[in-house]
Amino acid sequence: MLACIVQKAVPGCAACRLWQECAHGAARRTAHNLRAFFACTFKPRRRWGMAYIGILVLLAIIFYAVATLNPQAVSGWALGLERRRSGLVLKSQTIPGFTIPYLEGGQGQVLVLVHGFGGDKDNFTRMARHLTPHFRVLQPDLPGFGDATRDPAARYRMADQVQRLQAFLQALGSPRIIMGGNSMGGFIASEFAARYPDQVKAIWLLDAAGTAQAHQSPMFEEYMATGHSPLLLKSPSDVEQLIQATMSRPPYFPGFLKRSLGARAVADYALHSEILKDLGLHSPLLESQYANLPTPALIVWGSEDAILNPAAATVQQRIFPNSQLVVM
To answer: What pLDDT is attached to residue 47?
Structure first.
């Protein structure tokens, strides 16, 4: 009927006849013509609707098959979509001994976001959509994590990772920065601010590691006693335990994403076990080295954190007295 309206009435089309009668003010609006109108107008739509449903079902089956057989590919596609929504693009920078992929987006003050242990550059991607309108956001993969170079012969002490992050930022020619980090990333941000105070304008610490108080938690006590940690996955099925341990109210994780995360974590088990030892045994705690650092800090803690003890916030405030604490 749409073609009839745009062009001319088509002979034999009941809907067109009814349209002409209504338009011309005729009185012959019979039940027969109404039935013809609805038959002409809605039956094709119903047929097209069923076709669309069939196509959607077929696509869902194909998607499920691909997600089951190749979860990494589907996860990559989903991450790409999240990056575009946040205005981030994938780039790469080489420093001595390592290639560091990173995400970048936005303009203005440089904000460097450092992921935690076992994480990667995409840990902040969804959050970044609220930040890229105001900052030039950089989200690097730390060496040994994500898609960055993995060198089993390298050392991954806190001092080593801070030095590599400094080399990365120097290669980009970044001016004074704001640095944020969660968990291990918060430890790195704190150490970076202490070592390079002229380069850091402010820091943003999210449940940051690096203090004795932070490590007084059931997870760390179990790790010190047994060597087992939910952050180290021996089996892909352990990813569910990791999610429950690190999130008080976990969001929905599609099955393909869990399988992809689990497969990568299992592949990294040996290396990450050594990195965790380097961080725990060969990285001095912050309070043993620093106090009254001048860098402004926003300290944020989740009150239900089971990995790192929220009571560490008071220790961090002594290290960074020019700070604001937010407990959520």
So the answer is: 60
